[in-house]
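Problem 12. The chain below contains 203 residues. Write out its predicted structure in token notation.
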Amino acid sequence: MNPTNPIILVLYYSRHGATRKLAELIAQGIESVPGIDARLRTVPAVSTVAEATAPDIPANGAPYVEKEDLAECAGLALGSPTRFGNMAAALKYFLDGTATEWLAGTLSGKPAVVFTSTGSLHGGQESTLLSMMIPLLHHGMMVMGLPYTHPELMTTSSGGSPYGATHWSGIDGDKGITEDEKRLAIALGRRLALTAASLQGAR
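Solution.
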């Protein structure tokens, strides 16, 4: 990683690992673009116990996100598993705390994409993607999806959406990432990185 390269923040919440796998593929797509680096970050779970606190460093996976990550990024990939057709509370909780960044325009004009995983094929993938787009639009981000120039969108029998990358993990999380899902996730990361690089050059 070159400290002078623009950074794309890949921010996600993953309960059982399916969304994390998508995040890693999107990061792979980002880093396929020369001169752009991916920064994987997650958010702590929300507890129903008022006194509960999460450790400063997760036991595994990416570090927890900090507000500086938003300021330093040239683009954002945002991911969450589906919760009744919506993003998970942990990710929503983090986004709800970004009013200072919203007022400052920290994310304004930066490109963004979204991704999700679901236990059932028709478990609200696209509504979850749309729910994540709304706060990004309020932040003034340039939200992008996947065009139908990617033939996998027409042939997939698993995940994949023009609104963003998706994965059908199965109720027990027993379904691995399919080839179509993998190609679309990597393509989404690459598209985000190319757009960020183009915008960086224009500035």
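Discussion. The first strand starts at residue 7 and ends at 12. Students who got a different answer should revisit the alignment rule from Section 12.3.
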